[in-house]
């Protein structure tokens, strides 16, 4: 389980280093979530998840408010959620989640990123079956036993609770995201080092030096694409 948390940390650190890019992506994600229902997180669970994630990335309030105001207005951009699957160097597996208002732009761009870095696009389902959709929360200032007590008190089912380096990590089913969040908040915990709905590989692989470098270029190329929101993979990242 430790390598899963390591990958999440590395992924978050990478995004933290590209704040303007990640802020723009969150702006789109918040807008789309708000348009699905009411632009109020208390009545729109999808929006509440996105806002909690945005909080852990320190997305400025101005960007959040701008996206919510746009959703409240007459703007009606037609965004679609699309998932692409593919393979990187040495058979590594990659999932690419996108939000796009131009499918004809997105698919060729994702395919080109794979091809340029020695990878290839796969068909739907060729990779995703090797990943598990997972809600992940990280908290500090608590022990694993204390977090377990919090979850038991709230009668929340979780997959695992582990102490990993400087945080306690909770892994749960995706539909338990809100329950885990509310259990923590009732216990006075409302700051998270991570609050994600993610795809975790069932098995992780390591790559030799050259393949690792090429793989990292592939991930960077994918994450640089305008329409890409999240990239998941099964490669154990180096610290």
Automatic annotation (TrEMBL):
It comes from Paenibacillus agaridevorans. Residues 3-73 form the TACO1/YebC-like N-terminal domain. The keyword DNA-binding applies. GO terms for cellular component: cytosol. Residues 79-235 form the TACO1/YebC-like second and third domain. InterPro entries: Integrase-like_N, TACO1_YebC-like_2nd/3rd_dom, TACO1_YebC_N, Transcrip_reg_TACO1-like, Transcrip_reg_TACO1-like_dom3, Transcrip_reg_TACO1_YeeN, YebC-like. Belongs to the TACO1 family. YeeN subfamily. GO terms for molecular function: DNA binding. Keywords: Cytoplasm, DNA-binding, Transcription, Transcription regulation. SUPFAM superfamilies: YebC-like. It is found in: Cytoplasm. This is Probable transcriptional regulatory protein PAT3040_02160. One of its GO terms (biological process) is regulation of DNA-templated transcription.
């Amino acid at each position: 389980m430790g390598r899963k948390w390591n990958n999440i940390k590395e992924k978050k650190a990478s995004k933290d280093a590209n704040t303007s890019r990640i802020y723009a992506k969150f702006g789109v994600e918040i807008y789309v979530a708000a348009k699905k229902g009411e632009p109020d997180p208390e009545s729109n669970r999808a929006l509440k998840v996105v806002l909690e994630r945005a909080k852990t990335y320190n997305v400025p309030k101005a960007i959040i408010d701008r996206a919510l105001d746009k959703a409240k207005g007459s703007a009606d951009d037609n965004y679609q959620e699309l998932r692409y699957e593919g393979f990187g160097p040495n058979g590594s597996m990659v999932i690419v989640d996108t939000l796009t208002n131009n499918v004809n732009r997105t698919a060729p761009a994702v395919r080109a990123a794979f091809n340029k870095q020695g990878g290839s696009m796969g068909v739907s389902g060729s990779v995703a079956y090797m990943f598990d959709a997972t809600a992940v929360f990280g908290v500090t200032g608590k022990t694993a036993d204390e977090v377990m007590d919090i979850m038991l008190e709230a009668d929340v089912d979780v997959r695992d609770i582990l102490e990993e380096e400087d945080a306690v990590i909770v892994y749960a089913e995706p539909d338990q995201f809100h329950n885990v969040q509310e259990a923590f908040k009732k216990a006075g915990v409302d700051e998270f080092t991570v609050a994600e709905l993610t795809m975790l590989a069932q098995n992780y692989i390591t790559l030799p030096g050259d393949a690792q470098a090429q793989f990292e270029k592939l991930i960077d190329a994918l994450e640089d694409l305008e329409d890409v929101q999240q990239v998941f993979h099964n490669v154990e990242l180096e610290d």
